[in-house]
Amino acid sequence: MEKAKVYFDDFRAPVGTSVLKKLDRLIRKAGMEEMDFQRKLVAIKMHFGEPGNLTFLRPNYAKVVADMVKELGGVPFLTDCNTLYAGRRKNALEHLDAAYENGFSPLSTGCQIVIGDGLRGTDDVEVPVRGGAYIQTAKIGRAVMDADVFISLTHFKGHEATGFGGAIKNIGMGCGSRRGKMEQHAAGKPRVSRRRCVGCRVCSHHCGQNAISYGEDKRAAIDYEKCVGCGRCIGVCNFDAIFSPDDSANGELNRKMAEYAKAVVDGRPAFHISLVQDISPYCDCHGESDIPILPDVGMFASFDPVALDQACVDACLKLDPIPGSLLDQRMHEEGFVDQHDHFCNTTPDTEWKSCLEHAEKIGLGSRDYELIRL
């Protein structure tokens, strides 16, 4: 079988060129301009960033993609679905306000913004998952599925539950409606180490389900009737007091995410772009952004989202950690156990291989790729 082709270019921009021109060249070389966009509605799935976070992709990148779609006769729109957790993107009105605040508008991007699952995150479509082992019908934002062509534009970074956030996460988790996100997250629910909890209440401020309360000892307690297992409290705890007791929980989340991604792209033209820069330790859903754990790598593009994620993670694992970053801090902590993986060393309770393995198994793509450098 022929290897999947992944195209790559770095972020170097000598005098007379620009990173945006290089992105345009990359996606043309990777085959995007050969797609049929004529009079097609084109969903460009990206993350608008939680206000306060500064590592999300700039609107300028979206404009490059949107402009090419228009040049080729298509009608593009930027899209994302509402979040499950508390924050400023949990309904369409707040989500649009957040996008505008972070610089996304028809003027800056050259196209409209449509929140994929509607006003309250309830406007979805049940899409069959061919070959799915966990999900029979994925709950995908209606606007995402109404599009004729799908493009993912991804900020590749670390993630507190899935190891890294790449194309598959941008597609699978990002295109799930609120109940779709709940379905993906619901397998594992966190526990609290009362010995480590200091009662700072940061976790409760970030819980979208009001599932965390405090007893007389001022230690956190989780109401499992309310908890949906999203894992956000794990990521925001500065004292490692909240953890997942089920080692298979993240693996199941990863496999469900792959099945959701397959539901989104099956049966229609799709193209995928990942920018590996500002590699923050956690998701852009956080209302803050820590310094990058690794140096910037470059831009990748492919018709295969599995090959794309594999190429991005392979490139990251060849780099040295940035001194002073969370990854560097973890590696110098007492009792550190080297997992020989930058993302797992940053957040030891995570892993990412199950996602790519399952994605390949169900036919989403291939981990075997040819890297074509421009």
Task: Tell me the layout of helices and strands.
Layout: E1 4-9, H1 19-29, E2 41-45, H2 59-71, E3 75-80, H3 92-101, H4 106-109, E4 112-115, E5 124-128, E6 137-141, H5 142-146, E7 149-155, E8 157-159, E9 163-165, H6 167-172, H7 178-185, E10 191-192, H8 202-205, E11 212-214, E12 220-222, H9 232-236, E13 242-243, H10 249-265, E14 270-276, E15 298-302, H11 305-317, H12 326-331, H13 342-346, H14 353-361, E16 369-373
Parallel strand pairs: 1-16, 2-3, 2-7, 3-4, 7-14
Antiparallel strand pairs: 1-15, 5-6, 8-9, 10-13, 11-12, 14-15
Helix pairs in contact: 1-2, 10-14
Strand order of the biggest β-sheet: 4-3-2-7-14-15-1-16
Q: What's the rounded overall pLDDT mean?
A: 95
Helix content: 25-40%
State the low-pLDDT regions, or none.
none
For the sheet with most strands, the description reads:
8 strands, mixed
Termini Cα gap? 24 Å
Strand content: 15-25%
Based on CA atoms alone, the radius of gyration comes out at 20 Å
The secondary-structure class comes to: alpha/beta
Number of helices: 14
Shape: globular
Query: What pattern of helices and strands is seen along the backbone?
Result: EHEHEHHEEEHEEEHHEHEEHEHEEHHHHE
Count of β-strands: 16
